[in-house]
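Hi R.,

Here are the chain sequences for the assembly we discussed:
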Amino acid sequence: MSNSIIQVQNVSKSYWRDSLEVPVLNDISIDVHEGEFLGLMGPSGSGKTTLLNLIAGIDRPSRGNVIVGGIDITKLNESNLAKWRSRHIGFVFQFYNLLPVLTAFENVELPLLLTSLSKAERKKHVELSLDVVGLGDRIHHYPKQLSGGQEQRVAIARAIVTDPTLLVADEPTGDLDKRSAEEIMILLERLNTEFKKTIVMVTHDPRAAEKAKVVHHLDKGELS
Amino acid sequence: MKIFKLIFKNALRHKLRTFLTITGLAIAVLAFGVLRTVIDMWNEAVNAAPIDRLIVRQYVSYIFPLPYAHLSKIQKVPGVECVSYANWFQGVYKDKRNFFTRMAVDAETYFSVYDEFLISPDELAAFKQERNSCVVGSAIAEQYGFKIGDIIALEGDIYPGHWEFVIRGIYKGRDKATDVSQMVFHWTNVDERMRQEMPGRAGDVGWYIAKIKDESHAAPISEQIDAIFTNSGDATKTETERAFTQNFISGLNSLLTAMNFVSFVIIGIIMLVLGNTMIMSARERTREYAVFKTLGFSASHIVIIILGESLLIALLGAGLGVLLTYPVVSIIAALVPKGTFPYFFITPTTLILAAGAALLIGLAASIFPIQRALRTRIVDGLRFAG
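And here is the predicted structure of the full complex:
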């Protein structure tokens, strides 16, 4: 367990629907090593997105621990967890979740507003990130002026702009056509191989999963 | 890109909705401002009335006259500095709609008692000298284009007949609260004609005005004056000019209360309008707030984003409403007959109330959306389909 950056230890998660407990994850344990590209696959309702959310610190387990970069994030309060996310997690959503009133530049700049970087430094970081995703020439475009693939690339630029410890992606190609999906997966693979980013990705798409170095399958809340 | 830029961009996201909300707020603030101004002016009229002047009127009602003979007795009361008297004349100047205060007064003492009416010594001397002369306030001089030497013809009603008065003076107000909408002329002139045409009404005085040396003695002096006439057929009721003015407008109290109530109902309506807009906006952005939280933005950031937008819209609406209130109040001031209010302007209190209400409304309208945004878990927010 030398270089595990993520340790998911005996994690269970249940939701309550009225008085009915609905188990989603059952005693899951996973180790993810630094620089790894992990794919989480499974049918709908298998708990893969829930597991991703627990790793990203946007949800809390009912039982068990999630240790990321040596920090047990299940022990952090909401405020510290928010700070931790801003420093360590880059999130890529299925539906991009860009703010429609902000330009590509401004969307990517958002996470940097929580840092102490100067305006000039922020500009440098944002431009670099947009260059990495190949949208250096679209910085003043609004989301509605971009294609789905371009929007997702802006979302990836937003996710990497703070140089986070971990990149989590929830169905990053789920809303894209085949060609755009391929481009996004090449980009994620490049971020993993060239920029040494640790990536945890949830996907339904076997072609997307092919890019991952390690793939875990979940079924009914358990690793199979 | 700062949070404030985001607030501004969010406020303009649905331009038509924001425009309609701001317009609604502006109209409500305008209505609030106008109502408050009317209420303020009524209250100011009372507060502006001094307490070192006593009004001595007939005990039952001021519509009944007092005898001229009371004058010398009031003058002798210790503490009384100077006594003047006046009669409500009314009459019609060209048209009944041309309303302004018209009174027959004691020319010798009236401007001494009302020292806030500023008139040049020459004009005052000319007025005193000429029995059929008059003095008009600067407001009505301006409104009707009166100049020194002009003749004002009135058709009498309370005092029947055709009356003509030569303008010998135009007085100004010492301050903004001074009533500069009066036309005054010689009581002796009116009384002399009454003596000839209606002898039964000769020697009638509408009310006496007693200026006292020490306003703290207003109560005992009033009691002394009334005590003199208690057992006579012309008993008096003496009170300070402020109390007299207050009683005079007491018949309007229920109207003022209603206006006061309506002005605050308007605040409630504004709150609902903005609250509705903010709730809709916040609901539509449920997923965005979840994204903010995912990116590491704290609860205080979410509060600033929602509260900032609410305050921005509220203040824009209030600002526009206040800006509109000025010309509307000016139009109303021009339309209402002179003398209805001694003056008519927006007080700083009204501006502070409007701005304060806007802040309060901005704050209140954001409470529910903030609460909702903060309570929604990130995972639920990200699933929100809106």
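The mean pLDDT of chain B is 89. Residues 101 and 182 of chain B are 5 Å apart (CA to CA).

Let me know if anything looks off.

Best,
T.
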